[in-house]
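Appendix B. Chain record.
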Amino acid sequence: MRREDVRPLLLQAADPIPEPELADAAWAAGRVVRRRRRRTVAIGVVAVLALAVVASLLIEWGSSSGGDNITPPTNPPGYVEPVGKINGIDYWVAPPPGSERFLDRLRTPLGDRLDLPEKVRRLEEHPVENVAAVTLVSDGERYTPLILDSDGTWVRADVALGPVGGTAPFSAGSIAPDGRVVAFPQRGGVVTVNTLSAQVSRFPLPDGDYSSVSWVADGRRVLVSGPNAAYQVLVGEGNQDERAVVQVSAPGDPNEATSPYSLQTGSVMRYQFNGRWIEDTPLTLPIRSWQGQTFASLFGAARIFVAEDLPQVPTRVSQPQVLAAMATLRTVPSRLLVLGEPQDNPPAREGAGDVPFVREVGCCVVLGWYDDSNVLFRVHGWVLAWNLDSGRVRRVTELRVDQVALGPGLRP
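Structure tokens predicted for this chain:
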């Protein structure tokens, strides 16, 4: 074969083969590249999201573990700065007496004014599952409990209570933690009223005038105390072979027999189920005397004391009184609220008419906790609430009864 014959033969052999479309090939190659780029971008986005989730978890873990590099949350709206410190503890000054009516209100079943009701139902007809408040009415010789349901209904318990030491058999710690039993001190014993079944039970004690009742946290036992004696009384279902009455160490002040904590001069005491108290933490405050009972929340214990002279908050006609909210957890700060005197020249307000009473010794006591942030306390003619997070004081209700105990039914 000659060289010149090769080319015609190659053309003849390639004639049946279709010519390649270079544009289609280029388009297909471009689609492959674009798919690769999209895959790369998607992987990058997923990686960024994963890193963000991990970072948020680390921040949350750091805040719960007390990380020093985490920025603390800002103060809540309406926050009131503390005035200063007393023995290293931040303190606030309460609004002056006579101004309570103009405070913002914390709404509860107590209403705007707590007075003896005109309409009362019998407890047998209207069982109460969650007691909001209890007070007493007297016919001259005997006292009858009036119980406020969380729905705002007043009921009467059919039990006649005798006076104790010539006064009403009443204690601010009367209402059980579950809001279903109320206990009343009596001479030589304690009486309980089950507000669901209307059952009245009497538990005898050695003869004596008992004036204070404080519930143990389990709701099955109460501490009942008088001037020279104190007992733990089993009023619910107990353990096997448990004694119904256990004598406990009696403090000088019956109101100091409280559980789970008792604020006393020099220390915060923790109650033990063996009938004794142990020191929980030292307490260094300028205390002259204590008023009322100690009430505890999950994080703190609160009680009012009459202070020695306070250079930080001088008074003219009365001895300063202070609401002490002492922390029972090391991560929570303690706080103080000083109950001051009337202003020299109170500002004139439209509708004003409250007398700015001087807060004498015994006028003010803690009544409990609305929640873990709000302490409830009584001043002359009012129940107030102090918010520990914001420092604000709000009015709860105007008080038109001689005494009141507050229960968990206050909360919605």
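Further analysis of this model is presented in Appendix C.
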